[in-house]
């Protein structure tokens, strides 16, 4: 949620939005942002709608229940400045399936592939629009190919490490619709300090430490 570059008045779309946590964190960062979530599971979207209502955000955080593989039937083209996604990480058939339907949808590409996620993002973005997502380091080559195949060029990349010096466990990536080749690789996001506590940056991302007002 701290990775995308936000500006006032932006229209954002969260693919595979689940219960809307990512959208809520983006709205906390930028008070003049609106986010539309697209979620396959109606139960998750309903929970997100209730959360938005409880926080007075009905007008800024909305949900569309549907399959992103039919994105053209759900939302208009080039309607968003920013698309974000935490897509399924593992190809279908690559391991044991979780028992929960929600976990299966979140972790494995049974419902949509990486290529289909990138294609949906490209459809929703105008020329120059940005697509930010998180994925596994071992699938970096797949990610680059899927982005470029959808007309999105990888422009920013940030590794996520559990501790300083550890190998990355995740990658934060930004693709730009119609962008030129060239990637800006950022310093890692470190999740824990040497004592195993959440890092200061992680606490800031989740708004755990707010400045006290006099």
Question: Could you characterize the architecture of this molecule?
Answer:
With 214 residues, this protein is an alpha/beta fold. The chain has 7 helices and 9 strands, in the order E-H-E-H-E-H-E-H-H-E-H-E-E-E-E-H. Strands 1, 2, 3, 4, 5, 6, 7, 8 and 9 form a 9-stranded mixed β-sheet that branches. A hairpin with an 8-residue loop joins strand 6 and strand 7. Helix 5 runs parallel beside helix 6 (140-149). The protein starts with 10 loop residues before the first strand and ends in a 9-residue tail after the last helix. The mean pLDDT is 92.
Brief overview:
The chain is of the alpha/beta class. It has seven helices and nine strands.
Whole-angstrom Rg? 17 Å
Number of helices: 7
Helix content: 25-40%
Question: What fraction strand?
Answer: 15-25%
The description of the largest β-sheet is: 9 strands, mixed
Q: How many E strands?
A: 9
Structural class: alpha/beta
Name some characteristics of this structure.
single chain; alpha/beta
Secondary structure: elements and pairs:
Blueprint: E1 11-15, H1 21-29, E2 34-39, H2 42-54, E3 61-65, H3 71-74, E4 82-85, H4 101-107, H5 114-124, E5 130-135, H6 140-149, E6 152-161, E7 170-177, E8 184-185, E9 189-190, H7 200-205
Parallel strand pairs: 1-2, 1-4, 2-3, 4-5, 6-8, 6-9
Antiparallel strand pairs: 5-7, 6-7
Helix pairs in contact: 5-6
């Amino acid at each position: 949620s701290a990775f995308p570059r936000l500006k006032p008045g932006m229209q954002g779309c969260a693919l595979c939005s689940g219960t809307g946590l990512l959208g809520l964190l983006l709205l906390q960062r930028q008070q003049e942002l609106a986010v539309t979530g697209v979620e396959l599971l109606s139960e998750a979207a309903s929970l997100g709608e209730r959360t938005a209502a409880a926080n007075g955000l009905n007008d800024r955080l909305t949900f569309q229940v549907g399959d992103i593989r039919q994105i053209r039937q759900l939302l208009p083209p080039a309607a968003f400045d920013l698309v974000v996604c935490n897509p399924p990480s593992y190809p279908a058939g690559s391991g044991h399936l979780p028992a929960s339907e929600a976990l299966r949808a979140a972790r494995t590409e049974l419902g949509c592939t990486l290529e289909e996620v990138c294609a949906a993002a490209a459809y929703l973005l105008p020329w120059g629009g940005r697509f930010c997502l998180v994925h596994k380091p071992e699938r970096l080559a797949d990610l680059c190919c899927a982005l470029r195949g959808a007309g999105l060029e990888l422009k920013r990349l940030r590794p996520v490490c559990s501790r300083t010096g550890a190998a990355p466990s995740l990658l934060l990536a930004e693709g730009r619709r119609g962008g030129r080749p060239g990637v800006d690789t950022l310093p890692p996001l470190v999740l824990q300090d040497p004592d195993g506590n959440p890092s200061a940056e992680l606490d800031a991302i989740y708004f755990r430490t707010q400045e006290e007002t006099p």
